[in-house]
Amino acid sequence: MNKESFFLILSAVGVFPIALVYGAYPSISLPFFYDIEITNNNLANVFRAIMGIYIAFNIFWISGALIQSMRIGALWSLFVFYIGAGAGRFLSIVIDGTPDTILIIYLILEIIGAAISYWLIRGIRNNS
């Protein structure tokens, strides 16, 4: 397995449980993991939609790991995912203040994930 495929699968394996925490049973998991109370159906719907987006990305990343012709697109989507999530967290820190430690850890992993994905993309582009 090449390093691009490995990183796509590693990212999918890491993001999938977070997707389930967000949306499988948000009224149970979100208070436990993030101290977020689901107060109405609209909030549950938003978190389940986020879960769906995360799972869709997971499917694309795994497909990119297994199908060479999809790999560069999957890496780009991984880069955009990490940059977008990290930028949103950074903006929240600036506007709202420092969140719990787990969310700071997510931010660090998103920065690292974006850097690695970009490095892998550059490696593919330089070799073609």
How would you characterize the overall build of this protein?
- The chain has about 130 residues and is mainly α.
- Helix content is about 85%, strand content about 0%.
- The protein has five helices and no strands.
- It has helices spanning about 5-25, 25-35, 40-65, 70-95, 100-125.
- Helix 1 (about 5-25) crosses helix 2 (about 25-35), helix 1 (about 5-25) crosses helix 4 and helix 1 (about 5-25) packs antiparallel against helix 5.
- The longest helix has 27 residues, at about 100-125.
- It is globular.
- The mean pLDDT is about 95.
**Biggest sheet record:** none
Class by SSE composition: mainly alpha
End-to-end CA span: 19 Å
Strand content: under 5%
Q: Assign a percent range to the helix content.
A: over 70%
Give the number of domains: 1
Described by the principal axes of the CA atoms, the overall outline is globular
Quaternary arrangement of the chains shown?
single chain
Q: Estimate the mean pLDDT confidence.
A: 96
Series of H and E elements = HHHHH
Number of strands: 0
Low-confidence stretches: none
The number of distinct helices, counting runs of at least 4 residues, comes to 5
**Gyration radius over CA:** 16 Å
